[in-house]
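PROTOCOL LOG
Step 1. Enter all chains and additional molecules of the complex.
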Amino acid sequence: MTHASDKPGTARRSYWGVGIYRRPSWFLYILPALAVYVAFMAFPLLASLKLSFYTGNGFRLDTFVGFDNYKKLFSDVDIAPRFWGAFGNTWIFFAVHMLVQNSLGLMFALMLSNKRLRGVGFFRTVIFIPATLAIVVTGFLWKLMLDPNFGPVNLLLERIGLRALALPWLGLEETTLPIISLVSSWQWVGIPTMIFTAALQSIPEDYFEAAQIDGASGWQVIKLIKLPILVPMMGVVGILTFTGNFNAFDVVYAMAGANGAPNYSADILGTYFYRTGIAGKHPVGIPDMGLGAAIATITFVTLLAGVLAMRRLTASRK
Amino acid sequence: MKRARLIVFAVMVLVMAGSVAAQSITVGSWRTDDVAQWRGLIADFNKAYPGIQVKFDPTNPPDYNATLRLQLESGTGPDVFYARSGDVGKTLFKDGFMLDLSAEAFMGKFDAASKFFWQSDDGRSFGMPLFAISQGIYYNIKLFRDNKIDVPKTWEDLLAAAKKLSSKGIIPFANGTKDEWDINEVVFQTLAPTYVGGAAGRKALESGAKKWNDKAVVAVFQAIKDLAPYLPRGYAAVDYNSSKVMFQLGKAAMMFDGSWTIPEHMKAAGLEYGVFAAPAPKGMKQAQVFHADTGMAINPKSKNIAAAKTFVAWLVSDEGIASVAENFTGFFPMAKASKAIPFSNPAVKSFLSFNDGRDTDVRFSWTRLNTGNPSGYDLITASTIAVLGGKRTPQQAADDFAAGLAKWYTY
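Step 2. Run joint prediction.
Step 3. Record the structure below.
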């Protein structure tokens, strides 16, 4: 806690002199960022919060309805199942990413940090390439791969005698969401891999030398040196995955359409919000923006609560 | 005196220059696929009216209604735009975003039945009927010939043909359910008019003379169930584009689809295809979907209403109708005069012949059932897919449909 006036040379100036001179200056530095933040983040956020209490005709929302939109989402006979379905599906989507994408990311990072592995650069590139492709491309690619009649996945399953397993993967209510979650995990696995790899590279060489001298096994090195150092990074990856998944839209839209077909089984908050607040439902296509804003607000609150909880979890580990 | 004349002349020139520069109109549309077609149409229009510039400015189809509404509300809407028939169009008109066209001379070129779908409940016209589309079953001529199958005349013939194809390892129908809209709009709603008894039958349901789970509605779901064994393996994961590809590659022998797909099939190399109307069961009369699809509306806030009207009127002049028919294969001009157009494309001719001597109607859900919560449209989709998957019987599906409508439908 060094106060500006504690520093030599400024001590003799009056409090006001320092204050007037210094206070505006720090403010000026953050002013551009603050202005951009307020104009493009805070204001729209608050405006959308306000919209969630209104309803109206088309795009003119002029009737204040209090918490009606929220009540509809939580308890209307026809709307609530859609909302809770999308909410639950988003958690499944998130769980698959945590289990598959982040575990694989951790494994890949540990493998890539193994000094005896040859061709590290090649593997790193291969793991990261999907993350550089547009979801429209990867979604379409996987749709073709999983096609029930011509897709290589099912042709392969049949060839090795597993015809019973050659399912219409993107047509069954039970499989569509898990498959889409896996495709998304496949696409983004490079990100946690990269974050974990960067953390592993920051471990000083002495630790490993000391471990070697003490005769630690490879597993002991991982368990006692690498993993403890990765824990804070796991928190960061968890938060990134959480925010990414609760805002996700494109992968489901590309592979299951705006309805999350079949029978809304792949509908997540992103697609439900798009359908309700932006595009409207086919074939009428006029959105209910107030209801959409309510969905967006709930998504925001969920994200806020989730991120705070995760920060607390990982912070206490320090 | 000379000076005064000069001033008058100068003012006239300025006014004319101003009016020429202002003669530019934008056309809003949900058909991003039709840019080339519109280029042809506009070129023909400019032969007659070189002074009016027309710009075709389509929106991504799923976003069209929302985008258009937003543009109209914020005053940046196109001068002329595609108008949805039925409920969606009525709402825009009620909210003042479409010019009342009832008194325009060009509306006289249509019969009452065609105008009806772009009219408010009190009979005012908000859209000029531009295109109708037709629906039926495409078939692969070569596969039919190789397997000695004739074009089915009855529903029973159709199922027998499907069974025969299936036993030879050919997919009978290419349709799937992954995209949801196609199983509803091009399968269910192609079949519905026959079973419910055309427009009169639809109106009987809408007015409450018959219940929504009437045996006629059950019969439509029964027909859907009949088709279930003949869809592609894993049809639940087959989307509309895959269906078309399967048909074009000759993997599937038939496909329920609309007349708008003709241009795509024309481009498919080596595909020998024809089209027939979805047949009625023995002893029943077949009714045909001839769907009032696209109207033309004028933005009342347009700065060029006169030019917009000139353009819309030209579309139903003799040259306009001919140009529409020539450029938009698979879309049918709706003016009375268009009945005389000598179409050359055989599939187009077949589609038109389906209307001969048959009761025709728009798509079943389009007049009253597309709105509401849950919308009749969504209920049809859900029930159709449930019947195909064996999760509901046709009777249960019709009951679900009626129960859903009971939540909001008012007679």
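Step 4. Note key features.
Residues 219 and 287 of chain A are 55 Å apart (CA to CA).
Strands of chain A lie at 54-57, 60-64.
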